[in-house]
Amino acid sequence: MFRPLSRIHRERITRRQFSTLVTAAAVMFGLACCLLLQVAAQGHEEQNEDHKNERDDAAAAFEALIPVLHHPRCMNCHSTGDFPRQGDDSHPHTMQVRRGPDGDGALAVKCSTCHQDHNLDGLHVPPGAPDWRLPSPATPMIWEGLNGHQLCELFKDPNQNGNRSVGQIVEHMSTPLVLWAWNPGDGRTPVPMPQAQFLAKVKEWAAKGAACPAEENGSQPNEK
Fold first, then answer.
1. CA nearest 114: which of 104, 123, 127, 102?
2. Residue 10 has pLDDT above 60, yes or no
3. Could you give the CA distance from residue 200 to residue 156 in angstroms, rounded to a whole number?
4. Per-residue pLDDT reduced to its tens digit, 60-110
C-alpha cells in the first residue's frame, strides 16, 4: 500500500515542480526574445536594403539627366561668364548681352527686346518662351565643368538654386522655359532625350530621395 505523502514531502515536490516550470518559462521567454530580435534584425536589414536600392535608383535617374543638362540648349544659359551663349557651338551672345541685376539683361539691352514668349518663324531667328532670362546673379546656377555629383548637389543647395526645395525643382523642370529645349526652333538641335523620359527621370530622382551619383562616377561634361 501507498503511504500518504507527508505535507513536507508534498511541499518539496510542489516547489520542485514550480522551479521546473519557472525554468522552462524562462527558457521559452529567452527563445521568444531571440526570435523577435532575429525577426527585427532581418526586417531592419531588409529596410536598409530597400533604402539603399532607392538611393541607387535615384542616383541612376539623375545620372540619366546629365546629357540633357550638359547639352547646349541648357548650357547656353548655365555656362561660366556673365552673359548668355548661342548656337550648338555655345558662342557668346552677340550684341554684348549681359546678365543684368535680375537676369533679364542690362540697361537697354533686355532679353525681351528680341525674345518673345514663343519661337519666331524662320531659320536662326530669336527663340522664345515665357520668362526668357538667365538666372539672377545672386544664384547664377552655373554648372559648366561640374560632374554629375557636383551638379546634383548644386541642384539641391537652396543657397544656390534660388531657395527651391526638391519638389520645386521638379516643378521648374516642367516649366515652358525648360521644356523649350525640346522645341528650340529652326537651326537648333533639341536635347537628345525624349521629353516624357526626361520628366519621368526627374520625378523618379525626387520621389526616391534625390540621392546624387557618387563623386567618382559623376559624368564629366563634353568638351566644347
1. 127
2. no
3. 18
4. 999 999 999 999 999 999 999 999 999 999 999 999 999 999 999 999 899
Count the neighbouring beta carbons within 10 Å of the beta carbon of residue 184.
18
> What is the domain partition of the chain in residue ranges?
57-217
Question: Taking the complete model, does pTM exceed 0.85, yes or no?
Answer: no
DSSP annotation string for the chain: -PPPPPHHHHHHHHHHHHHHHHHHHHHHHHHHHHHHHHHHHHHHHHHHHHHHHHHHHHHHHHHHHHHHHTSHHHHTTSSSSSS-EETTTTEEPGGG----TTSSEETTEEGGGT--SSPPSSTTPPP--TT--PPPTTS----TT--HHHHHHHHH-TTTTTS--HHHHHHHHTSHHHHGGGS--TTSPPPSS-HHHHHHHHHHHHHTT-----GGGPPPPPP-
What does the alpha-carbon distance between residue 202 and residue 193 come to, in Å, rounded to a whole number? 12
| Strand-pair partners of 110 | 105
Q: What's the rounded Cα separation, in Å, for the pair 3 and 51?
A: 71
Question: For 111-125, what is each residue's pLDDT tens digit?
Answer: 999 999 999 999 989
